[in-house]
Write a structure and sequence with these properties.
Elements: H1 17-24, H2 34-63, H3 70-93, H4 105-137, H5 148-167, H6 191-225, H7 230-268, H8 276-301, H9 303-321, H10 328-348
Helix pairs in contact: 2-3, 2-8, 2-9, 3-4, 3-8, 4-5, 4-6, 4-7, 6-7, 7-8, 8-9
Main location: membrane
Membrane topology: Multi-pass membrane protein
Protein name: Lysophosphatidic acid receptor 2 isoform X1
Length: 371
């Protein structure tokens, strides 16, 4: 994007980032103000917490065999997208405020690409989770029969499309040669791109909400017709609790990101009276907080996940204190041994799985976990 040539008529390749900001009316201070220190400090702190929390989720899914199913692989990939968001926000904090003036156009586009790609990855993961739930819930199964190969291909496709969508402005959908159509919030993006991106994500949100609404109606109707057999009741509760968890994740995502997307769309439509810059930082903070929500939901909704978190943290504490045998691989072996023991006890006592009553353990129905 940065070129060492003269500007051609209508294009401004040799102008600085500050030039585009001043033209769009988004002035940036050359000196650090108290507000800048507060914003950057809070942003860095939240980003570090987001990164650590989602690493914890990914490790928990890896070491606990109860989570080795398509739905949890997709939830783990959602945690990876949130981890990516934390890294993108941390990178943003080191390239914002007065630092923005020093950025080259390439560096500015990299900053925006990271943010855009992380959001797209989260949206695509939620859509994939909705499709997976739609496939399984309508047959009252806990897990789909999707093979590991298909899950890997799906995850690879999600990241490929997310990266591509993040690179679209860099590849040409910018306003370097169309200065009159530069947006206010993203001064080197065309307004039309903001409208396209916001509408596409809002439409995807609407599809996911519609899908989950249809699933809830179906599950409620189906549960009323099920017999009162104990195993069926437990399976129904397990399925419904898992639906509640993924729906809470989707709901929090929509709540956190919709204001920012609406603001982007208003900016893209050229609404001068909307004062988008006044609300920009608040919407950005709200969107960033979403990456903290999912690990919290996992902890409160899934007893197995919470117990795995505790084992990981205790292992790290013991490793720091004693310094022997508490490696990740050793912890994984111990966890698998506990799972095997739990399953053997479950075969001897058919009705002793008390955690089926209040969390989303994948072993709610053993007949569904053999696939």
């Amino acid at each position: 994007m940065d070129k060492l040539t003269d500007d051609i008529p209508g294009c401004y390749y040799n102008r600085t980032v500050q030039f585009f900001y001043e033209h769009s009316g988004k002035n940036i201070s050359a000196h650090w103000r108290p507000r800048d220190y507060v914003v950057v400090s809070l942003g860095m702190g939240v980003s570090v917490i987001v990164i650590l929390a989602n690493i914890l989720v990914m490790v928990a899914i890896f070491i606990n065999r109860r989570f080795h199913f398509p739905i949890y692989y997709l939830l783990g990939n959602l945690a990876a997208a949130d981890l990516f968001s934390g890294i993108a926000y941390l990178h943003l904090m080191f390239h914002t405020g007065p630092w923005t003036i020093k950025l080259s156009k390439n560096q500015w586009f990299v900053r925006q690409t990271l943010i855009d790609s992380s959001l797209t990855a989260s949206v695509l993961n939620l859509l994939a989770i909705a499709l997976e739930r739609h496939q399984t819930i309508f047959t009252m199964q806990l897990h789909s029969k999707m093979t590991n190969r298909r899950v890997v291909l799906l995850i690879a496709a999600i990241w490929g499309l997310a990266i591509f969508m993040g690179l679209v402005p860099t590849m040409g959908w910018h306003c370097v040669c169309d200065l009159d159509n530069c947006s206010t919030m993203a001064p080197m993006y065309q307004r039309s791109y903001l409208v396209f991106w916001a509408v596409l994500n809002l439409f995807t949100f609407s599809l996911m909400v519609a899908a989950y609404t249809r699933i809830f109606v179906y599950v409620r109707h189906k549960s009323q017709r099920m017999s009162q057999h104990t195993s069926q009741i437990r399976h129904k509760e397990t399925v419904f609790n898992l639906m509640k968890t993924v729906s809470m994740i989707l709901g929090c995502f929509v709540i956190c990101w919709t204001p920012g997307l609406v603001l982007l769309m208003l900016d893209g439509l050229g609404c001068e009276s909307c004062q988008v810059l006044r609300y920009e930082k608040y919407c950005l903070v709200l969107a960033e907080c979403n990456s903290l929500v999912n690990p919290i939901i996992y902890s409160f909704r899934d007893t197995d996940m919470l117990q795995t978190f505790k084992r990981i943290l205790c292992c790290l504490c013991r490793r720091g204190g004693a310094g022997h045998r508490d490696t990740l691989s050793g912890m994984r072996c111990n966890t698998l041994e506990q799972e095997v023991l739990s399953e053997s006890n479950g075969n001897n006592h058919h009705d002793n799985h008390n955690d089926d009553n209040n969390h989303i353990s994948p072993h709610g129905d053993h007949s569904d976990t053999d696939d």
